[in-house]
Specification:
Mean pLDDT: 83
Largest sheet: 4 strands, antiparallel
Low-confidence stretches: 78-86
Oligomer: single chain
Structural class: alpha+beta
Strand order of the largest sheet: 2-3-1-4
Shape: elongated
Number of strands: 4
Order of helices and strands: HHHHEHHEEHEHH
Length: 236
């Protein structure tokens, strides 16, 4: 079941529960306010039996509706957890390649992408760390850098791990000043991390493009141009 169906079904069950409560209160209020019916109920065994069955049915409906709501909440939570697993990188916890692909598709369908800016950032000393200290240390470096990258990039746009040691940011309403501010903030954050952390210092390189300058007509062309520029070093 998708989120829309779950939410609509949840609303239906809440309305059902409210109506049951209203009916339950109205039923007992009617008996309390009608002394003749109340006296007949206690003196007429058939009427009392009907009332007992009706009460039992109302209680049963109430309990099953509450259980349905609890199960639905669990289903929604499980769905969110599955989505989190599907779209977040298992190593770093930031959006993964699949999430990046979704962003690619989104902007590929946009008619006007003239204000987009993109940057590709890669850890430049990862291969050296993997070779000298092992992949476990390299994974720690990826995790630490991803945390720094996300903390800075979230203020500017979509951030994700595009695979391996590559991290991507896509910014809307991106000007040269905005891109430069992002790069400056990333420089400062990485510098602060390297000075304060007991982990291995991280170095990185980045390339960036502004479509306000390139005027590419599709997001695919913009990303392709970004990869052509890959290799331009921007050291922290």
């Amino acid at each position: 079941m998708d989120n829309k169906y779950n939410n609509n079904y949840k609303i239906f069950k809440i309305i059902q529960l409210i109506l049951l409560i209203i009916f339950f209160i109205a039923f007992f209020a009617y008996i309390k306010l009608d002394p003749v019916l109340r006296n007949n109920m206690y003196t007429n065994s058939n009427l009392l039996t009907i009332c007992v069955f009706l009460w039992a049915f109302m209680v049963f409906c109430f309990l099953t509706t509450v259980l349905d709501l609890r199960q639905l909440e669990k289903s929604i939570t499980d769905t969110h957890s599955l989505q989190k697993v599907a779209y977040l990188d298992s190593l770093t916890g930031i959006p993964n390649r699949q999430s990046c692909d979704i962003i690619f598709e989104k902007y590929e369908n946009e008619k006007n992408i003239s204000d987009l800016g993109c940057a590709l950032v890669g850890i430049s000393n990862l291969a050296l760390i993997n070779e000298a200290l092992g992949r476990s240390k390299g994974n720690v470096l990826i995790q630490e850098f991803a945390s720094v990258f996300e903390s800075v990039g979230d203020n500017y746009g979509f951030v994700g791990r595009n695979g391996g040691n590559e991290f991507l940011i896509v910014m809307e309403n991106c000007t040269d000043a905005k891109m430069q501010n992002f790069l400056d903030d990333l420089d400062k954050a990485v510098l602060a991390y390297n000075e304060s952390s007991n982990q291995i210092p991280v170095t990185y390189k980045s390339v960036d493009v502004l479509n306000s300058e390139l005027q590419k007509t599709s997001f695919g062309e913009l990303i392709a141009y970004l990869y052509k520029l890959k290799g331009t070093t921007h050291n922290a």
